[in-house]
């Protein structure tokens, strides 16, 4: 099934504005087709390449629009198969209570994420590491609190996706929805993120990705554990 962009007046846009407009158009178009039943549960969506051609958009814009739909629970990705309409069309929190505290979420992540590292090392491919690199770059250039949080969670979502395990992926998607429902812990996402906080987060996550890329399982697991433990400690002012 072809999805095309609605006819619009041609207005000069710089690259950043065009990318934002493309992301919004792709998201809105797919979301409307999910809402009106054009895409039923389990239906396969067009590929990233097809969407990019139909909308005249960059693949990165398509990927970000699909990432948002995944994070909100409207579609799911299946490694090697594609993107599909999800069983839940309300964007609900699924397996994680939308009111779960950050403390509880971090406790679960500490139990799960270090243990899944061997799967990531075994199964991650070039596309997975490209996605991780994009997320690191997003953290590096993030200016607002909301932007910074989105990229942090997107990075760890990319790491989880590399396991190829749909259950793990679903759990992390639910965690992202719960955190987003809480506005990432801050009502005003436009608050500026400090260089010190951003740089510290970037350093910790670069260490994780480097260890994964080099196949150093124990180092990667330790880096994930240290990063999450430090996050828990920061909640208590340690």
Core attributes:
single chain; 238 residues; mainly alpha; Arc Repressor Mutant, subunit A; Four Helix Bundle (Hemerythrin (Met), subunit A); two-stranded antiparallel sheet
Describe the structure.
- The protein has 2 domains: 15-85, Arc Repressor Mutant, subunit A (Orthogonal Bundle); 102-235, Four Helix Bundle (Hemerythrin (Met), subunit A).
- The chain has 10 helices and 2 strands; from the N terminus they run αααββααααααα.
- It is mainly alpha-helical and 238 residues long.
- α4 packs antiparallel against α10, α6 (126-141) packs antiparallel against α7 and α6 (126-141) runs antiparallel to α9 (195-213).
- The protein has helices at residues 15-35, 48-55, 59-71, 102-112, 117-123, 126-141, 145-161, 166-181, 195-213, 217-235, and strands spanning 75-78, 82-85.
Give the topology, please.
Elements: H1 15-35, H2 48-55, H3 59-71, E1 75-78, E2 82-85, H4 102-112, H5 117-123, H6 126-141, H7 145-161, H8 166-181, H9 195-213, H10 217-235
């Amino acid at each position: 099934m072809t999805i095309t962009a609605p006819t619009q007046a041609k207005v000069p846009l710089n690259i950043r504005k065009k990318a934002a407009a493309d992301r919004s158009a792709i998201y809105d178009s797919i979301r409307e087709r999910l809402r009106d039943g054009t895409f039923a549960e389990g239906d396969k969506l067009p590929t990233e390449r097809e969407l990019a051609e139909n909308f005249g958009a960059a693949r990165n814009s398509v990927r970000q629009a699909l990432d948002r739909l995944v994070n909100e629970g409207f579609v799911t990705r299946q490694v090697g198969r594609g993107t599909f309409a999800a069983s839940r069309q309300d964007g609900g929190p699924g397996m994680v209570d939308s009111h779960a505290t950050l403390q509880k979420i971090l406790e679960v992540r500490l139990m799960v994420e270090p243990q899944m590292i061997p799967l990531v090392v075994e199964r991650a491919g070039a596309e997975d590491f490209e996605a991780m690199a994009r997320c690191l770059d997003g953290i590096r250039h993030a200016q607002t609190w909301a932007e910074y949080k989105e990229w942090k969670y997107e990075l760890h979502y990319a790491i989880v996706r590399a396991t190829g395990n749909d259950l793990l992926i679903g759990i992390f998607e639910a965690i992202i929805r719960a955190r987003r429902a809480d506005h990432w812990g801050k009502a005003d996402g436009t608050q500026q993120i400090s260089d010190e906080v951003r740089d510290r987060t970037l350093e910790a996550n670069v260490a994780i990705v480097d260890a994964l890329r080099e196949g150093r399982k124990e180092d990667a697991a330790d880096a994930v554990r240290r990063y999450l433990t430090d996050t828990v400690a920061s909640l208590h002012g340690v």
